[in-house]
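Narrative of activities, Objective 1.

The group set out to show that a structural description can be obtained from nothing but a protein's sequence at a throughput compatible with the screening campaign. Below is one input-output pair from the validation batch, recorded exactly as produced.
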Amino acid sequence: MLKIRLAKVGSKQNKAYRVVVIEKRSKTKGKAIDILGSYNPVKKGISLNKEKLRFWLLRGAKPSKRLLKLI
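Output recorded for this entry:
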């Protein structure tokens, strides 16, 4: 089953996240199938490729709870 979730990138002091499509059982830093955008909690900004997001949602990928709150 595919999930759309946040994958942490950056350092401990400078957190940032990527919005990725990944297999549900993969590790947080596991290999992503597709990168949909990014989220920066410091700047409180999220950027998404809406066409890719729609593509994966139509194919059955489920977004995480945190991502639903951000969207």
